[in-house]
Write a structure and sequence with these properties.
Layout lengths: L46 H8 L7 E10 L6 E3 L4 H18 L5 E3 L5 E5 L13 E5 L4 E5 L2 H14 L19 E9 L5 E7 L7 H12 L5 E5 L1 E2 L2 E2 L8 H4 L16 H13 L3 E5 L7 H6 L28 H16 L5 E5 L8 H17 L3 E5 L2 H4 L6 E4 L7 H8 L3 E4 L2 H4 L21 H5 L15 E8 L7 H8 L2 H10 L7 H18 L16
Parallel strand pairs: 2-3, 2-4, 4-6, 8-9, 8-17, 9-12, 13-14, 14-15, 15-16, 16-17
Antiparallel strand pairs: 1-7, 5-6, 5-7, 10-11
Bound molecules: ligand TNX.
Ligand TNX binds next to loops.
């Protein structure tokens, strides 16, 4: 072994040029296989060590276990590369994850040589990480995460987190015994996503969720490398975002929710806080207002938005309300311009949602006029319109992103739009709707798309799912949580976990890793982690959860 290599076979420095002296295998059809290195290590990998790498969720492109391991101790430090506030933020975030359970100080330095070191490279140096990928290397004395962008470092940190004992997620100092030492088995993970768009959707209109509740969900989804949060901000039952010059949208439309609760709304300052929090987790928020249907709350707030000029009563029940904006009225156009303009200004990301689903109370001509106006507004504000798949029927190609949510085969218009350049987000309700019941015993949720057990959520291929649509038209996947029956964070947890990680894996992992038998074991390994985090997940009988989780 050459002198510049450490005892474990990894160079201590210049890992960008590393060629590892361990065998690397890629799991095809059986999940991630674990390569066992040649016999130059002190000890062969144990089953526990190997399973840590096999349990990474979403499954990485390549994972390799080796002998030995790194232990977080009272002197462990974290370092960020100089010159990147984003990377420094990830380093601080990592230290913040490690401190509570270990009780160690975990100092963070910039430009230093920490025991856990974050490094930024560039694609020009020939690596394959892309904008979100990373290389994580764990040796006896050092852990290095390399990426081209801070987002890749953040995703690498999520992987590292899963290689630590689940007790690391506890928020108070835990006693260290030999079996709970803060050790990370040696090895490496090279990783990058299959799709750049991996979203979770949250309906804050049917029930309102506060800023801390949404932040909690952002933390949960970012564990699984989700990078977009689509917020359904308006519907018949509530309007949840303050819009300047339109105070009644929230003063009237924000005061209701399903079941008769008090509802609520975000001020623009609160919404900005959410956007910033999401950014700190490398999650981009997509705001959606839903037009021309699903607008009863707005029609209650501003009677002039109705064709008959009469105010509607906001809905507090599930479904049922067939509402429509009035096409062709100057007030409707001003409303769309103002709302979309202000939402676009609050949005650092590329997409602004205009809804467009289930507009049964709108004529086809009025539908096309309103969707066109809304899409044009979004474009004029420098953003990309995001619409439900129905928007392609009115004006093929009008939205740049169309979300497929039905359970039927794609319509001719959807295929035509995809052929003409519209990008598709896939969330077929019978696989990706987190609000559907798991089975007949599920207390929460709806069942119009059928029961969606964990295997149903997992067993489909977004690349080939839509017959007649070229895989290149697929932007990515989304798991939506509609909240007609969901009123608390515990309710969110119960429906989202463990199905959200299933959709997250479809979005991130190479298609070749797709394997239900391996996936259910990866999920099982998350159980103790969710318990430590206080995530009230559904103990699906399809998953062999470890005892006590
Ligand atoms: C359909 S998804 C809807 C939502 C409901 C959901 C309930 C979509 C575009 N429309 O308004 O909340 O079903 O599962």
């Amino acid at each position: 072994m050459s002198a510049h290599r450490s005892r474990t076979g990894f160079p201590r420095r210049s890992l960008f040029a590393a060629s590892f002296a361990v065998v690397v295998l890629v799991g095809i059809g059986v999940g991630v296989a674990i390569g066992v290195g040649p016999a130059h290590h002190d000890a062969p990998p144990t089953a526990v060590q190997a399973s840590a790498y096999a349990s990474i969720l979403p499954a990485p492109v390549r994972a390799t276990a080796a002998g030995g391991g790194f232990t977080v101790t009272a002197s462990t430090s974290v370092s960020a590369p100089s010159g990147s506030a984003g990377a420094r933020g990830v380093a601080d975030y990592l230290a913040g994850l490690l401190r509570p359970a270990t009780g160690y100080p975990v100092p963070v330095t910039t430009g230093g040589d920490g025991d856990i070191r974050l490094e930024l490279g560039s694609a020009a140096s020939g690596n394959q990480y892309g904008a979100e990928g990373y290389l994580l290397t764990v040796a006896d004395r050092q852990i290095v995460i390399q990426a081209n962008q801070p987002a890749g470092l953040f995703h690498g940190v999520q992987t590292l987190r899963q290689l630590l004992p689940a007790a690391i997620e506890q928020r108070t100092a835990q006693a260290v015994t030999s079996s709970t030492a803060w050790s990370v088995p040696s090895g490496s993970v090279l990783d990058s996503p299959r799709f750049g768009y991996r979203a979770a959707g949250l309906d804050v209109a049917r029930h309102f969720f506060t800023v801390p509740q949404v932040e909690r969900y952002i933390d949960e989804i970012s564990l699984y490398k989700i990078d977009y949060l689509h917020l359904h901000l308006t519907d018949d039952q509530g309007w949840r975002i303050a819009i300047d010059n339109w105070p009644n949208l929230t003063a009237v439309g924000g005061r209701t929710e399903i079941g008769g609760g008090a509802g609520g709304y975000y001020t623009q300052a609160q919404y900005r806080q959410l956007v910033a929090y999401a950014q700190s987790r490398f999650v981009t928020i997509i705001p959606e207002i839903d037009v021309p249907g699903h607008v009863t709350a707005a029609l209650a707030a501003y009677p002039g938005l109705n064709c008959d000029g009469k105010a509607r009563t906001p809905s507090t029940v599930i479904g049922g309300a067939f509402s429509s904006l009035c096409a062709g009225k100057p007030l409707t156009d001003t409303f769309l311009d103002d709302v979309i303009g202000q939402l676009a200004a609050l949005t650092p990301g590329p997409y602004v949602g205009i809804g467009g689903d289930e507009a049964q109370a709108t004529s086809p001509a009025a539908y096309a006029a309103i969707v066109d106006r809304a899409a044009a507004d979004v474009r004029a504000d420098g953003k990309i319109p995001w619409g439900w798949q129905e928007t392609t029927a009115a004006n093929p190609g009008t939205p740049d992103v169309a979300a497929y949510w039905h359970t039927d085969p794609p319509t001719a218009q959807l295929k035509q739009a995809a052929g003409a350049g519209t990008k598709l987000v896939l969330m077929p309700a019978n696989h990706a709707y987190l609000d559907q019941k798991y089975d007949q015993n599920t207390k929460l949720g709806l069942k119009w798309a059928g029961y969606v057990e964990v295997q149903d959520a997992y067993d489909w291929n977004p690349g080939t799912y839509l017959a007649g649509v070229d895989p290149s038209a697929v932007l990515g996947v989304e798991a939506d949580l509609w909240t007609e029956t969901v009123a608390s964070s515990a309710d969110i947890d119960y429906l989202a976990f463990p199905r959200l990680p299933a959709i997250a894996e479809l979005g991130w992992s190479p298609a070749a890793t797709h394997d239900w038998a391996a996936f259910r074991l990866r999920l099982a390994a998350q159980g103790p982690r969710w318990k430590a985090l206080g995530v009230a997940y559904f103990k699906s009988p399809q998953v062999p959860w470890p005892a006590g989780s």
